[in-house]
Each structure stands twice: as structure tokens, then as C-alpha cells.
């Protein structure tokens, strides 16, 4: 009764709203209320026994009344409502749209705005879309594909590609009706349907009363058009938040397909095609199409200018067009001056055009929700064309925005990627436990400039994010006055000629410091010692060889420093325990070079100097042949990841001291031959990753003692010997490829009833080449 009464009220209300009759369910609702009151009485323990038998008879009568109503009256009402809806559909066609309206005695549709939903004309032959056109046409003409989404950043040519597709001879020959409608950021379903009706020659009403009427109108129109042949509906420039709108167009009719173009991904709607920026060859051809060659220019000089301009435009058709138009008919001096201005830091965002590049990109930023706007702006702190590990950005966001979950920060990355404001590139199989080194983040230079432009709307010293670029030893003028910087995120980049002669800058509010360096020797600025709020320090060397770092003592005793990441640096002088960073939670060392001093810290009580350290991540450190002794003294450690370290042959027996360790990852260490027997002392270990340890021959004999171990990842470990004690591991999940499964685990499956083996194909991922 508790479920039926509100449902009945809702049905009665809907009937009234759709003019299908009201009050017809009143008798049923009264019966339900009567039953509800009766049941409440029977629940009362004070009801006498003889009264209960009387109430039972009343319940039988109520059941009969309800059954009679549902079997007879409700069926008749339902049939009546169906007829009314069919009549409404007929009225929509015959009365509202003007079908059957007589002109000169003939029953024909009335032509109104016949070009309202026509495919746009192509003023110039598109350049660079031959391959995307072929791929998209293949999908569109595939009977198994009903809905397609073409997504890309703004200015990549989505509308141009869709328009070219609609003009293709094969597409026009297949679809008898091609309807093209621009949706934009403020869509109105009723208006779009009205446009479709008018385009096809039918009088629409002044306005539909509701979306239900518009749906009936759309369905009726499509049914009518389908008599002549297949239909293609193009919804151009669909914005985020239009998922419900798209579903209204998703009508199950044969020979009816929808093509959507959008800056955003709609993964649940249909097949997704991501349009990439133009390659250099196509970009060059497009630039030549828009800009005539300046007079008195040698072939060599002209080619050099073209190369520089193409590189600067980075494959964005809108940028190439704007730059090309601005240079068309101009002198050689103007061409050279434009290229020179870019080297001085000017952007292409404000080149005069209608519209400007900035006006094209700005709506994508404006459409972001507040937290994603902040995350997008942070991306301006990294360099052009930089390939960023996802873990770097996630570390920053976790501390900068107080997020305790790395999964939430990963979702922010995915949200920005779904809106084509950055690119998230997987490097291998999906990993577990918040390990995000297997993802690269890249961003188009134009989008990076958009992020920087938004941050520059405030005065330099008042900005929340500040980028400081130092060329040779030349600092911006504002740095020479001993300024107080109020930024919370400070990014400093230096070139290979920088001599580490720093000026003093007061940065009391900085929480995240991002250092980009290119020189072989680099001294950290002493003013870091004054960053009492500093939480994250990331140092990335963009030079070819590891850079030698000095003045590391400036980090000593920083009270809030929680995360340090060093990439491609030589840390011979680094002795982490001596810094006494009592708040440090995570240390990441990537492509670093180590020296002997790294191991010499036996006189330090590591548990007191690094009492909060919970995670150590060592990746692609080629000269690491053994684990530093002090690492095994960090009793607070919960995650230890050593990956892609080819010289690593053994782990210290002292690893057994890490009683709080939950995750041990030693993947892709191809010369690691065994895990120490003391591994069985890791009583809190729940995840072990030994994937691609090709030289691993055995696991600890007493691994079965690790009762909290629930998951093992061991792709390409079929040579490894499993000890008998592995059978004591209850509820174990194993991830491996077919060979490891058949040679190691298949024989154990009958004996380990709760064993789950996930067989995964080994990925040969060419994305790995993008790392270097």
C-alpha cells in the first residue's frame, strides 16, 4: 500500500496534465487508503482476536475490488488513452503542421524556409581532412553504427569535417535526407524541431506547449521523411550538459542516423571519433591557401618562415586561418616581425580577426564548473609540449585543494580530457592503488596560452598562479625590486645558460613550487627557505643529461613540505634523511642518477627524521642497482614502488622492517631475480606487483603468511616458481597474461576455491615512445 498510493497519485496527475482525464483513479486511491488504514489496525497488538477475523474478511473484499478495477476498468482506460495519443499524433500531422492543407486544390505541404536546416556550403576545399573523412564515412555507412560523435578542441575543424562529409558523393547517394542544425550552448529542443519542420515545408505551431508535443512532431516528421529513404541528422556544436537533449533525438527508427559534433565527449551516446590537429604537411598546405607568398622572398627564406609559423600554430586550423589571413598580402618584413614577436613571448590569441582565436577558445573555459576552471588554469604552470606524468598533477591538486582522494583528482583530469582541454594518454595496462605513472598528460600550446591568459588578468604580484621565465641571467624588471609574491602556485623556468645567480624574492604564500631547468648544474634558490607554506616541490630537468643539484639544504626544516618530485637530476649530494622533513609524505625520483653518498646515512635515525613518509616512487632510475638502506628504516612507509630500474638485482633483507607496507611494486625490473625471504614479515601487504620482472625466478617460501595479501599482478612472470604456501592465501586475485596463467596458476585453481585469475592481453603500447 505504501508503494501503490504515491504511484497512483502520480499517474492521475500525469493524465490530468496530458488532458487524458482526471479523477478516474479516485476509486482506486480510496480503496488503497482504506486498505492502508486497515493494515495499520491489524499491526496493533491491542486488537482482539475475534476482531482480526472480521478485518480479514474486509481485506478479502478490498482485494476483490482492486483486482476487478485492474483487470477491467484499468485496461479500458489504458486503451482509451492510447487512442487519444494516436489522435494527438494525427492532429500534429494533419492540423498543426499543415499536412493536407490545400493549395490550388492540391493536398501538398506548404514550403516554408526550405534552407533552414540545409548543409552549409564549402567556400574553399578543406585541407587535411582526407583521412578523417574516409574514417568517418566508413563508420557512418556501417549498418551497425547508429549514432556518431565527432569531438575535438575548439578550432580543430569539426564543423568543416561534418560539412565535407555531408557533401561527399557516397554519403549524399546513401541518405535521401540530410538535415543540418546548429545546436550551440543554449539548446532548445522545441525550437530545433520547429526548424526541422519548417525546413521540410510544414507549418509548425507558434510554439509547442511542451517537449512531449515536440517529440511527437519529430517522430511523425521522421516517419514521413523515411518513406523516401534513409535520414541523416547532423547536430553541430553540441555543448556539455546536452545529454538529455541528445536522448530526445534518439528515436528507434530504421535508416535514421545522428552525427554530433562537439568540443565535449558524449561516450554514452554513440561511436566516438576524436579529430586530431593537422600534421605539419597539411598545416603547411592550409597556411599557403590562406596567405600569399610575400614578394622578393627566396625559396629558402620562405620555407624557413613557413616552418616556424606552422610550428607555432601547432595544427589548429582556426589558428592557421587567422595567422594566414593576417599575413596575406603583407611584406616580408611583416612576416619576419610576426615570427619574431612570438619569440618575444607574444601569443596568437589576439591577432586581429573576426572572430579572434581567443573569442573562439574562451567559451570552452567559461563552460567549466568552478573547480575544473582552477584545475585548467594550473596546467599553464607547465611548459610547451611538455609530457607530464599524471601523478605530478594529481600530487599538486591533492595538496593545493585539500583533496584526500587521488581518484577524485584523476576524475578531474578525465573531465578536462572529455572536454578536449587536455589529452590523457595511457602508457600501459590500467593499474591499481592510485598509481598514475602509467598516464601521460599533454596539452595543446594554444590551450596552454588560454590558461595563462586567464591567470594574467590580475596584477603580477597579486596573481594566484605566477609564471617566472628567466633567460640566461635576465630577470623580469619586477623581480629586481625585492617583491612580495602572493601566488600560491609559482612556476619558474630557466634555460641552459642560467648560472643560478638568483635575486631575492619573498614568497610567503607559495604552496606549490614547479621548477623547470635545462642547465647541467643548478643551485636551488635560497628564498625557498622562506616558503613556510610550501607543500609540493617538483623539479624537472628538460636537458639531455641529468642535472647536478646543489643547495638542497634550503629545504631543510620546511614545516609543511609534503611531496617532493625530482626528474632527470643527479642526486649525489642528496641525503633525504638529513633534511629532517618531518611532514614529507611522498618522495618521487624519476630518471635520476645516484651516487655513493645516497647510501651513506647509517648514523641517522630515519624514523625521527622522516616520521611521516608514506610513499616512495622510484622510476626509470637506470643506475639504481640496490635499494638504499635507509629506505628500509622508514617504518611509516605504506607504498614502495620501484619500476623500470633495469640494474636492480636484489632488494635488501631489511625490507622486512616495513611492517606498515601495504603496496610493494617492483614491476619491469628485468634483472631482479628474487624477493627476499623477509618479505613474509610484511604483515600488512595487500598488493604485490611483479609484472614484467623477466628475471624473477621465485617468490618467498613463506609468502602464504601474508594473510592480508589479496592481489598480485604478475604479467610476463611465467618463469617464476610458486611456493606451496601460496595456497594459504585466501580470496586471492591474480592479474596475468595467458602464458603465466596456464603455467603457474591453472593447476592451483581446483585447490584454491576462492582464487580468481584475470587473464589480460599484453599491450604493445606505442604511447610509451612519447615519454622520451
TrEMBL record:
RPW8 domain ranges (all copies): 1-108
Keywords, in A-Z order: ATP-binding, Leucine-rich repeat, Nucleotide-binding, Plant defense, Repeat
Pfam annotation, one family: NB-ARC
UniProt-listed GO biological process terms: defense response
Family statement: Belongs to the disease resistance NB-LRR family.
Entry keyword Protein biosynthesis: no
GO molecular-function terms, A-Z: ADP binding; ATP binding
Organism, scientific name: Brassica oleracea var. oleracea
InterPro entries linked to this entry: Apaf_helical, LRR_dom_sf, NB-ARC, P-loop_NTPase, Powdery_mildew-R_dom, WH-like_DNA-bd_sf
Protein name: RPW8 domain-containing protein
